[in-house]
Known about the structure:
The chain is of the alpha+beta class. The chain contains 14 helices and 20 strands. Among the domains are: 104-192, Roll (Pdz3 Domain), CATH 2.30.42.10; 196-331 and 349-372, 2-enoyl-CoA Hydratase, Chain A, domain 1, CATH 3.90.226; 380-458, Muramoyl-pentapeptide Carboxypeptidase, domain 1.
Amino acid sequence: MRKYNKLLLMITCVLVGAALFFAIEQIWFKNTQEQQANQPEVEEALAKLQKAQNLIKDSYVEQVDSSKLLDGAIQGMVASLDDPYSVYMDKETSKQFEQSLDSSFSGIGAEVTKEGEDFVIVSPFKGSPAEEAGLKPNDKIISVDGKSVQSLTLYEVTAKIRGPKGSKVEIGINRGDREKDLKIVVKRDEIPIETVHSDRMKTDNGTIGYIEITTFAEGTANDLKDELTKLETEGINGLILDVRGNPGGLLSSVHEIMDQFVTGKKPFMHIEERTGEREPLKSVLKEKKDYPVVTLIDGGSASAAEILAAGMQEVEGYPLIGEKTFGKGTVQQSFELGDGSQMKLTMSKWLTPNKRWIHKKGIEPTIAVKQSPVYGLVPLQSAVVLKKGMNDEKVAVLQNILNGLGYEVDRTDGYFSTSTEKAITAFQKKSGLKENGEANTATLTELDKAIQSYKDNPKNDLQLQSALQFISEKE
């Protein structure tokens, strides 16, 4: 089983600041003249903060830790921006976050963001515990281990989700197409850095190369270059780039990759400051590939993955196949605040080559292809045996699974009908299980295996098959 690293959703570069107010001044004032002009305003603001701190320390009914007051003040300032990608991490949270950038860490393998008051899964990585458990892009997290996440920060939520390898975490989610919330148990595992995978796919008209990019990390561009060189040396008639479920990563990484696929005839993206000033970024490539290239996208393709998709489409006209992307069009920078804490702040927007801002809109595919419903099925977890006559949300999940796998059921409303019983019996017979028409633990386990086996078969991947067909027709 392939496993993937949980990296930054944000396009990140790290800057170092000496302390909180120094960092704030650097953001507010870009040159000495501005700083001098606004100095009275700065002094007034700092005096107000100091007065509030002293009032609480001297007069509050209980003793208060000064460091907690400072952390709370910063968190309040960042929260007032109403930006899910601008966050403050105290020393401990920052340490946990930095550990996630190491060679590996224990977790579930999913990227989480905050939209308004909701904590939303951007994408579970392919082959990760999160994906295998059935978490999907845009799932809203409402609880972790039975406790509400309503009053928590983004990094407090992710810290609760992470944990020792082999341990389990129960995540309560709200999914728009369901009336009831779901509780999904995920077994944590080691999530190593493994960002590029390649393959050669035989067709009637030749060989098509396939490269999957799971995230844009430090060494991703070099790994991709190595894999691409191998494919081209062995000979390919076309190439498929797969960034489905890719939540983004480093801007420098996607820039290096664009240097291999799109020419510099126009910028592959623009970075727009709040002043409206735009910085175009161009590739150094002189000539495009002499074979067709297709990019696969879906709702889990975000940030840097969207930069790649937009550049491929708008610079060279390479088609995008799949479903609309996530829609993240902002750029963040990290500021260390001198005591181990750090602030991540949205500093700019990024625009497509045609100067479109895709934030909260996403990128539409050139060729829209939806996956088989089986890819959206959630592995069913039940502590009780599901049997005829029951009426439960879990039965509805079971009925959708059976229908998705080709065992037709007459209803999917959660009532365990005679038709449901017959479908389970048919599945049990094919799987070599005891044929009792009940969904016990053994049957549910085999159903989960059947779902995963279906997903692992490239012939069932409608988006991949569409890309193969497109390239074959171009040859």
